[in-house]
Amino acid sequence: MDPINPQPDAGQQPAPPPAAAPEPPAYSVPPAPVVPSAGPGFAAPMSYSPPSEAPTEWQRQTWGAPPASTPETWFEPAPATVAAPPTARRGPSLGIVFLTAVLAAVLASTGTYAAIRASGGLDRPAAAVVTSPAGTNVTQPVTVDEQSATISAAAKVGPAVVRIVTAGTDPNDATATSGIGSGVIFDSHGWILTNHHVVAGTNSLTVQLKDGRSFTGTIYGIDTLTDLAVVKVDATGLPTAPLGDSSTIKVGELAIAIGSPLGTYSNSVTAGIVSATGRSIDTDTGSINNLIQTDAAINPGNSGGPLVDATGAVIGINTAVASDAQGIGFSIPINIAKPIMQQAIAGQPLARPWIGIRYETIDLQLQQQLKLPVAQGAYVSGGQDTSGVNQPGVVAGSPADKAGVKDGDIVTSIEGLTIDGDHPLDAVLTQFAPGRTVTLGINRDGKTLNLQLTLGTRPTTP
Fold first, then answer.
1. pLDDT, tens digit, for every residue of 33-67?
2. What homologous superfamily does CATH list for 150-233?
3. Which of 16, 29, 332, 430 is the most exposed place for a label (fewest CB within 10 A)?
4. C-alpha distances in angstroms, 355 versus 359, 378, 462?
5. Which residues are catalytic?
6. Is the pTM of this model over 0.90?
7. Which CATH architecture does the domain made up of 353-457 adopt?
């Protein structure tokens, strides 16, 4: 055979036909170029078959092959390859296996639901998911939304807050005077609680409701213990404000003031916190004790309006502000007002109980200073009155004088209710009506005594 131009030798059998081509790959490739067959004057082409390679990404997209699958794990070593187990005998049909799996899942989920429900997990409030700066989700308990609480409280109490317009005469020069304050309806039959200084010295009262109605009001009575007064209007079916319990309030809790600041902006709502409790202030008419201090904005015209907690319950009646400071306002606790409110609804004259002593509430400093035998109570001692005149600790002819109370005694309880810094004498005393006989716990020179005392009626100027 000629190595350059091979021809079959004589008698040599022709080569058998080539074998059938292999199956094409799953993806299609461009057809191979046409190569001319060997013939006279042409050398047979050299055969070159490059190794098979997987198509590149752009080839897969062009040729329609599916993209490479995403790995199941990231940044972790690939799992070791496990040899496939030998083919097992044909088991139950696929349908039976599927139904069995579904039934098992239903039974398992039912049991899980019952267990969670029994544990109370479904009744717990949802938790908020907060993303930290590092990108990690941290589960935290949901906090109270103060904005929503303020909106809800204002909607609940607002319709019962009134504006009180007064007209009177200045006693000094007989000129006409006018004023505007606030009040809150506590009974639907026209009973309104406000400040004494709002209605004092007036000839006429006009009570204006949030819904636009106006009524003529009259002063039912004033409170000689605090700066409170009760006003009555001839109406029924009025909106009322729910009353709270001022003995349970905590420093730092939400406080909402509603009223008519400056007499112009009716039903204004301001919010702050309870800054302190048990405060005392001096006013033109005397001192007021056991007040709530708040930083909710209180301005002229807010006087007599309610101080409300986060639940929409009235916990105080706004009465005064510190004139030389900002964010220091005072409210009379609603528990102090409740006795006279009950007297008004019952048609009784407003009266406060009175025992007729002057005293100091004992604290650690006073105990150490006077070497007192107890650390709490009301120490009976004399002092100067508003005019600067020295007065004894026990008022002559008073209920305390008749019961045998002496200067230097320490009142430790009334009817078993302990007297201390959180429960001062005057606050405990307001729970009892004039004319009632009560038992006073007395510490005298280290000895305990029980004295029976019939409560009197607090005079206008005690």
1. 444 444 444 444 444 444 444 544 444 444 444 44
2. Trypsin-like serine proteases (2.40.10.10)
3. 16
4. 11, 13, 10
5. 197, 227, 303
6. no
7. Roll (2.30)
